[in-house]
Design goal:
Elements lengths: L2 H12 L14 H4 L4 H6 L2 E4 L7 E5 L4 H9 L5 E5 L4 E2 L9 E2 L3 H10 L1 E5 L2 H4 L6 H8 L3 E9 L2 E8 L5 H12 L4 E3 L10 E5 L6 H9 L4 E4 L9 H9 L3 E4 L2 H18 L4 E3 L10
Parallel strand pairs: 2-3, 2-13, 3-6, 10-11, 11-12
Antiparallel strand pairs: 1-6, 4-5, 7-8, 8-10, 9-12
Helix pairs in contact: 4-5, 7-11, 9-10
């Protein structure tokens, strides 16, 4: 498939006019030479324009060394890596610096192999069949009834009904779905009011998100990042004051289901695709 045709189709299907990002502002000089003008201008879509033809696609939550190396080890050329984030994530290294830039040496090899890199952050968070919170709800067997949490031009969260009898059962179900321990901050009752929960994957433990749950009379939030630190202290304070239970499943694991679902999207375009699994950062909890 012509690379330009694929990029245009992705833009048409996912990007809304009022979406904003600022990934390029945080990129270091040693990788800026590989970044295309499109990404320098708006931080959405094509990051590295390295190929004219795309014969296969890989999807990943983060452009980690593990993900990039896996593709290179496969020996592919004329391919594309689709990532949810334009930088890697590791809260365990430094609690004040979670995002880390892509490896410039690996980007050089991607250029030599004609492997482009494409990023949808808010476009993938925005509600759709493939979005982060929708696919997480699906993984947890939650029936969606409403969308919420408009952030940077994207509607990032969903509200839905669970068949779990209480928050402990829901937390256990979350852990089973992601394949590792999850964290329950039990600020309220065991009971899930009206069997209804809010889901905002990734960094959804945010005061804006929590405030909307309060307005909707919901006492459970399922998210990715749940660690109580200086960035989330305000959200935790609101949850404790209003007796809202918080369930965290890590940044990576709460959003991986969207990147898995994107393999179906690319398959529908006739492109073989593969999701690259990575290692969840349990320090997120």
């Amino acid at each position: 498939m012509k690379a330009t045709d694929l990029y245009m189709q992705l833009e048409k299907d996912f990007v809304k006019p009022n979406m904003t990002e600022n990934w390029f502002d945080y990129m270091t000089d040693d990788i800026k030479e590989y970044i295309c003008d499109n990404f320098k201008q708006r931080s959405i879509g094509l990051i590295c324009d390295f190929t004219k033809e795309v014969n296969s696609v890989y999807t990943a939550v983060f452009p980690s060394d593990k993900s990039l190396t896996k593709i290179l080890d496969d020996g592919v050329t004329n391919a594309m890596l689709f990532v949810h984030h334009a930088a890697d994530w590791d809260l365990s290294k430094d609690p004040d610096k979670a995002f880390y830039q892509m490896n410039p040496e690996l980007l050089k090899k991607f250029k030599e192999r004609n492997i482009s890199i494409f990023n949808f952050h808010y476009p993938l968070d925005n509600f759709s069949e493939y979005s982060t919170s929708k696919t997480l709800a699906d993984a947890l067997g939650i029936t969606i009834t409403k969308q919420f949490a408009a952030i940077s031009g994207a509607v990032c969260g969903v509200i839905g009904v669970t068949n779990c009898k209480d928050v402990h059962e829901l937390n256990a179900k979350y852990a089973k779905a992601v394949g590792h321990e999850t964290k329950l901050y039990k600020y309220g009752s065991d009971t899930i009011l009206n069997n209804t929960v809010g889901i905002c994957a990734g960094g959804g433990n945010d005061p804006v998100v929590v405030s909307e749950l309060i307005e909707n009379g919901i006492n459970v939030l399922i998210s990715g990042l749940s660690r109580n630190n200086k960035y989330s202290a305000e959200a935790h304070k609101l949850e404790e004051e209003h007796k809202i239970n918080l369930l965290g499943g890590t940044h990576y694991s709460s959003e991986k289901f969207a990147c898995i679902a994107m393999c179906k999207y690319f398959g529908n375009l006739g492109l073989p695709s593969e999701f690259i699994s990575d290692i969840p950062c349990l320090d997120d909890l």
